Structures are given as structure tokens and as C-alpha cells.
């Protein structure tokens, strides 16, 4: 078994254990393997081990990998990084979902380019209130979501966050819980939250997608 396949198996087991602790069916959580900055060969290994959902941060890298791996049937690309309007075309073309929606100009551009098959989207929330971090302030969600919901070509699925790194598990749990409450307040069921560091906690707090990179593909250079 390849190293990636082995790590993937470990993570799947940890996802299943977290689901069991939370009394949730394991199918209620999608494991997105974050492959940014990692070569296509490793994605292929993970795919051969059964992984289908992959996360990429950079639009051009996504475009290039999607072209290179176009033969892998059923592979789903999740675009999880901040996006500029001039790169929207790459995402609109190949993405199964976009997780970092926090700008109306980007939403409008995506909408224009995805008229046929609506793009599932997650609005990003700056849950830790960090300066110079992407994502919307919780107070800004209401008007933003209203505009996004009116756009054809996009399907608003839920909220996403990348909370500030912390060793304090209760603090991390608090951020995830807050995101879950915000999603509920806004009538959304999707929750994209949790990374290598804290995905089990995120699952316990209701994550429907976890985005795990390092634990599957190793440290990024
Ligand atoms: C890189 C990244 C991840 C994965 O982080 P790991 O710590 O490698 O698991 C998840 N979400 C986003 C938005 C990222 O940029």
C-alpha cells in the first residue's frame, strides 16, 4: 500500500470514530483531501485508494491539475482558497464546489460562468475576527447571503471557516460551534470546517465537510 493510501486509511478511521462519538452516520461527512502544492502523482495514488474529493487553493494550479487528471472518472474538485475575479473562469469550469465565497464581485462572475449546472458554494466566515484574514464578519452575512441567493448559477450550501490556529481545543470547539449556529440562523445545512489539526473536533460540532491536507499528503514545502 502506498504511504498516501495508508495515511488516508488512518484518517478515514479517525473520521468514522469521530462520527461514532457524535452519533452521526459516517456518510454525513465528506473528507476533502487538500492537495495544494502537491504533485498530481500523489492525487492519483489517493484516487486509486478510493478518495474522490480533492481540495485546491490556487485557481491556476486547479486548472492545471484538472487538465492533467481529467481521465480520473468521478473525481471532484473543491476550490477552497480565496479567488480573484480574473481567475474565476478556471474554477467555474472544473469545480464541484467553491468553499471560499466572501466577495460579491466573485459571486457575480461565478454566476455568469456557471449558468448550466449550478455551483455549490460555501460562504466563508472570518470566525475568529482576525485582521487581514479572508471571510465575512458574522454581521455581514445577512445582506451578502441575500444577494448570493438571488444569483442564478450558484447554489448556496453552507458556511466555511478556517479558525485561527490554537492549541486550546475548547477555543477551537467554540469557533466551530459558532459557525454551526450561524449556519442554522441563516437556514443553511452545510458546514465546511476542520483541518489536519482539528477535524475530529469539527465533526463533533457538525462539520459536513472536513478539509485535510497535511495528515494525508505530508508537510508542504
Ligand atoms: C491548506 C488548507 C487546508 C488544509 O490544511 P492542513 O493543515 O494541511 O490539513 C484546509 N483548508 C484551507 C482553506 C486551506 O487553505
From TrEMBL:
The record's section on Gene3D superfamilies has: Alanine racemase
Q: Which residues carry this modification: N6-(pyridoxal phosphate)lysine?
A: 36
Q: Supply the InterPro entries for this chain.
A: Ala_racemase_N, PLP-binding_barrel, PyrdxlP_homeostasis
- Which controlled-vocabulary keywords does the entry list? Pyridoxal phosphate
Residue ranges of domain Alanine racemase N-terminal in the record: 8-219
- Signal peptide span: none
HAMAP family, per this entry?
A: PLP_homeostasis
- What is the documented function of this protein? Pyridoxal 5'-phosphate (PLP)-binding protein, which is involved in PLP homeostasis.
Q: What is this protein called?
A: Pyridoxal phosphate homeostasis protein
User: What species is this protein from?
Assistant: Hyalangium rubrum
Amino acid at each position: 500500500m502506498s504511504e498516501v493510501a495508508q495515511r488516508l486509511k488512518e484518517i478515514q478511521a479517525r473520521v468514522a470514530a469521530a462520527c461514532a462519538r457524535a452519533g452521526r452516520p459516517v456518510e454525513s461527512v465528506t473528507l476533502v483531501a487538500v492537495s495544494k502544492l502537491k504533485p498530481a502523482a500523489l492525487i492519483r495514488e489517493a484516487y486509486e485508494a478510493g478518495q474522490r474529493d480533492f481540495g485546491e487553493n490556487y485557481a491556476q494550479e486547479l486548472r492545471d491539475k484538472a487538465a492533467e487528471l481529467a481521465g480520473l472518472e468521478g473525481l471532484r474538485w473543491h476550490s477552497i482558497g480565496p479567488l480573484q475575479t480574473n481567475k474565476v473562469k478556471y474554477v467555474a469550469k472544473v469545480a464541484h464546489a467553491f468553499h471560499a465565497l466572501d466577495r460579491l464581485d466573485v459571486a457575480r462572475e461565478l454566476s455568469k460562468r456557471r449558468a448550466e449546472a449550478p455551483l455549490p458554494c460555501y460562504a466563508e466566515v472570518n470566525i475568529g475576527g482576525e485582521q487581514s484574514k479572508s471571510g465575512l464578519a458574522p454581521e455581514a452575512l445577512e445582506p451578502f447571503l441575500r444577494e448570493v441567493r438571488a444569483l442564478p448559477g450558484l447554489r448556496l450550501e453552507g458556511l466555511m471557516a478556517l479558525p485561527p490556529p490554537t492549541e486550546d481545543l475548547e477555543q477551537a470547539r467554540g469557533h466551530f460551534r459558532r459557525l454551526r449556529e450561524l449556519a442554522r440562523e441563516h437556514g443553511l445545512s452545510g458546514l465546511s470546517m476542520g483541518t489536519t489539526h482539528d477535524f475530529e473536533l469539527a465533526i463533533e460540532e457538525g462539520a459536513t465537510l472536513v478539509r485535510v491536507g497535511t495528515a494525508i499528503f505530508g508537510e508542504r514545502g
